[in-house]
Amino acid sequence: MKASICRTLIFAILVSILLAPGARGVDAPATSHWFVDSLTKVFPEDAALKNQLVKADFLGARNSHVSVQWVLRTRQRVADASVEVTGFQGSGGNSITAQVRAVGYVVVSSNTYKTPSSEIIHPAPALFPDVLLEKFPITLEPDKTQAIWITLSIPSEAKPGEYRGQLVLKAGGAEIARNPFTLRVASATVPTQQTLKVTNWFYLSDRQLRGTYGVQQLTEEWWTLLGNLGRVMAEHRQNMISTPLTGFYFSKLALIGAHVSGDGLEYDFTNFDRWVDTFQKAGLIGSIEGSHVLRREDDPDAPASLKVDVYVIEDGKAALKELPADDPRAEAGLRPMLVALRRHLEEKGWMGIYYQHILDEVGEKEMPAYQKYAAIVHEAMPGIRTMDAVDARRNLDIYEKSCDVWVPVLASFDDLVPRLHQHVKNGGEVWFYTCLFPTGKYANRFIDFALVKTRLLQWFNFRYDLTGFLHWGGNYWSPQPVLDTQPLLGESWATGIIPPGDAFIVYPDKEHKSILSSIRLEAMRESIEDYELLRVLEKRDPAAARALAGKAIRTFTDYVRAPAEFRQLHSQLLEETSK
User: Fold this and answer.
1) Complete DSSP assignment for 295-308
2) Exposed, middle or buried: residue 350 (CB in 10 Å: 0-12, 13-18, 19+)?
3) Largest alpha-carbon pair distance within the chain?
4) How many DSSP H helices and E strands does the chain contain?
5) Which residues pair with 132 in a beta bridge?
6) 10 Å Cβ neighbour count for 544?
7) How far apart are CA 108 and CA 116, in angstroms?
8) What are 228-264's pLDDT values in tens digits?
9) Which end of the chain is more exposed for a tag (fewer CB within 10 A), N or C?
């Protein structure tokens, strides 16, 4: 409660400073307008022409996206303001589309912990750019800098060459400002088939969605919401979705049902199938990521803290129960359900796209239970790959037998890359994840970190041959995400406030029963596209691809930090891939 009051007061103070009234009633307001690299975050208090690009010249591959940032600052209040792209033509006609959004500013109450100030782009508390607002017109407040985000979508069939356009600011139908820009399309093409596995965990039960959207799980409105969410994430190249079986972290959603038939249980996959179908139609599947068969109590040190959610027969009916992992009924209930699930996956042709979690971030005391249940999963579901967040510094020989897909946290394996590669040689996969950490000099996608760090995350995938990325927080929203980007993580979280933005990378769009993107999600999409281009280059010239990745990332903490330097490397990537 105290934290909530504190954040409210901080927000009120920021708004009173940043939205202070200025001169009114001037017909032709003096407006500054300029381009800033989209990897540079623009703040409301930034002076006119700060970080101005020398040349409004942008570069992109075919089947990719290019972010353009146009910045406005006016001395008077301008209501009914809108921005549009006009005259966008080139040698290939007008096949390229442009989406225009306003950058919204969100409250960051405190900076990321255990991080030197040199790695923080702006001190907190403050308003930081993050959410992308799709609704126009907007109001430009006096002496407040406003960033406009333009996403250029380049189709695979676009002809290489120069495309020129104009960005126009209007208010009440009258033109106020105009800037020309150029997009250069390279012949390099991002492959249609994405190789990198990408998942942000989304929590889609009543606990997360009902209060925000006013819809109840498993209703028609809820399925529509899931389809809308899936399309946005698929457009941003996420290709996996965490799928609750009999529950999921912070959720009470079971997609597998059961009823008594004869002397036993018969499992119902109706909702599971609709879930998969919904996200397949949205383009998000891809792959199915089955939720963990083991979960924790709030207190991980409590006796019998690990639980298994399974169906048992009570009073002649099927009942979903949470049982201690050492309860014989837990294994007895889980095994036949997994056997039935595996049979169903085979019937549907989904065996090759299914992954099964066992337990997240296994502690030392939990390892015996993990081994036991991993063995149960492998026995009940032969041919299904298991995956989990693993500790790269402990128990790797155990994981070699128990886990097919290792997902260690970034910053935990700097000196262990050869050991991870050995797991791949043994037939496994290795990804990486971020969750609260790493901080300090490592790359991550926190709101108070430079956007270059987010853009480089999937370059780390290529640099160290890690073939997937996982993040725990797709939509773990606070009640008011714009005003609180640092929600408490569960009821028992006691180690302090989490880094800003770690809990979510999208924002709710209540009006359209959908979600809004963020500048971090846009940077992540472009990073995924970079990864695929590096893979293309590697097939033709492995040495060139490795050399380029090595220039961008020397070590896990020594990497490109200046947007201009990154643009040079990105330009070189497109040049090499276009040969």
Assistant:
1) EE-SSTTSTT-EEE
2) middle
3) 81
4) 12, 26
5) 103
6) 17
7) 17
8) 999 999 999 999 999 999 999 888 899 999 999 987 9
9) N
> pLDDT per residue over 131-140, tens digit each?
999 999 999 9
Q: How far apart are CA 419 and CA 30, in angstroms?
A: 61
Please tell me the distance from the alpha carbon of residue 98 to that of residue 68, in angstroms, as a whole number: 10
Q: Are 323 and 329 in contact (CB under 8 A)?
A: yes
Q: Which residues contact 450 (CB under 8 A, 6 or more apart)?
A: 39, 41, 119, 121, 561
Nearest Cα to 95, choosing from 160, 179, 191, 168?
160
Q: How many Cα atoms are found within 13 Å in the side-chain-facing hemisphere of 231?
A: 10
List Cα–Cα distances, 227 to 96, 278, 515, in angstroms: 25, 6, 11
Q: How far apart are CA 73 and CA 143, in angstroms?
A: 6
Q: How far apart are CA 140 and CA 47, in angstroms?
A: 15
Distance CA 488, CA 497 (A): 7
Return the structure tokens found at 440: 């300090």
**Cis ω before 468 (30° cut-off from 0):** no
368 preceded by cis ω (within 30°)? Answer: no
Q: Which helix (H) or strand (E) holds 79?
A: strand 78-90
DSSP-based three-state secondary structure for 529: helix
What is the spatial distance between Cα 71 and Cα 372, in angstroms, rounded to a whole number?
57
Which tens digits make up the pLDDT trace of 299-314? 445 555 899 999 999 9
> In this structure, are residues 148 and 142 in contact, taking their beta carbons and an 8 Å threshold?
no
CA atoms within 13 A on the CB side of 509: 18
Query: 3-class SS at 534?
Result: helix
Amino acid at 277: D
Is 217:204 a contact under the CB 8 Å cutoff?
A: yes
pLDDT confidence of 538, banded at 50, 70, 90?
very high
Instruction: Tell me if 94 sits within 8 A of 88, measured CB to CB.
Output: yes
Residues 6+ apart with CB under 8 A from 557: 440, 441, 442
The answer to whether the bond into 479 is cis (omega within 30° of 0) is no
CA distance 132 to 447: 13
Against a cut of 0.90, is the pTM above it? yes
Q: Is the pLDDT of residue 566 over 60?
A: yes
Q: Contact, 556 vs 442, CB < 8 A?
A: yes
Two tokens at 498? 């989490």
**CA distance linking residue 370 with residue 358, whole number of Å:** 7
| Token pair in block for residue 530 | 């970079």
pLDDT, tens digit, 9 for 90 and up, residues 15-50: 444 433 333 333 445 899 999 999 999 999 999 999
Cα angle for residues 504, 527, 158 (degrees, 5° grid): 120
